[in-house]
Amino acid sequence: ATPGLLQGLKVVVTAGPTYEDLDPVRYLGNRSSGKMGFAVAASAARAGAEVVLVAGPVQLPTPPGVQRVDVRSAEQMRQAVFAALPADIYIGAAAVADYTPRAFSPSKIKKTGTGQVLALDLVRTPDILAEVAAREDAGLKLVVGFAAETDNVADYARQKLTSKRLDLIIANRVGVPGAGFESDTNAMTAFWPGGERDFASAPKVQLADALVALVAERLQA
Ligand code: C5P
Q: Per the similarity annotation, which family is this (predicted)?
């Protein structure tokens, strides 16, 4: 990252999955290593920003100069994000679980008989990114989302850009080798109202620097 590129700006980044507890031993969660979000937080800090990193359950070291808040569930992530605002830039790189159990079972849910079906009641989690983007008192100059898709990547990314009222969305295809999830490399396409840019497959650390440069560019636009 270019030193000074984000000097004087506060950036809130979310990273990793969220875990939604079903009972004391089981949870629902998305696959996510948190590597991309952590790389973006590290890059923003190198660019001179004050960075708050709200991290779901991941095993990654805290990047230098980054203030880290660990959370487990989507609701906890939402609260930590709102506690970290106001900020200039929000980057939602977390793979937030879309559903959470309607009720947590304090005792372990017993297995059904073989061949029987277990039905779970799930409710939607809050869409943290959409809520953040809708806030008018958070001081945000740029709200950035991620879209991991298996197909129709560009269409879905553009839809999310509009429906969640984002300034920038970073789309990547999942389910292909060398991209997404646990991978150290990724290929991505950035979309903003009126433009797009492709980033060829590269280490996440390098893509994070390119993303921070694009964020700085979009701030000037
Ligand atoms: O709609 P979808 O989940 O694919 O959107 C992905 C983007 O929205 C990511 O930036 C993710 O961090 C954010 N998101 C969120 N809260 C949710 C679901 C997704 O902030 N409950």
A: In the N-terminal section; belongs to the HFCD (homo-oligomeric flavin containing Cys decarboxylase) superfamily.
Cα(83) to centroid of ligand 1, in Å? 19
DSSP 12-47: EEEESB-EEEEETTEEEE-----HHHHHHHHHHHHT
Helix (H) or strand (E) holding 11: strand 10-15
Is the ipTM above a cut-off of 0.90? yes
Comparing CA positions, the residue from 58, 49, 114, 116 lying closest to residue 84 is 49
Residues with CB under 6 A from ligand 1: 14, 74, 92, 94, 96, 98, 125-129, 145-147, 160
Task: For 78, list phi and psi in degrees, rounded to 5.
Answer: -55, -45
pLDDT band at 24 (very low <50, low <70, confident <90, very high): very high
- From first CA to last CA, the distance across the chain in angstroms is 19
30 annotated active-site: yes
Query: Closest ligand 1 atom to the C-alpha of 128?
Result: 20
Query: Which is the catalytic residue, given 30, 152, 172, 186?
Result: 30
Q: Is 160 labelled a binding residue?
A: yes
Residue (of 6, 12, 3, 4) closest to 129 by Cα position: 12
Q: Are 123 and 100 in contact (CB under 8 A)?
A: yes
pLDDT value of position 180: 62
Please give the structure tokens belonging to residue 67. 């203030």
Whole-prediction pTM value?
Answer: 0.95
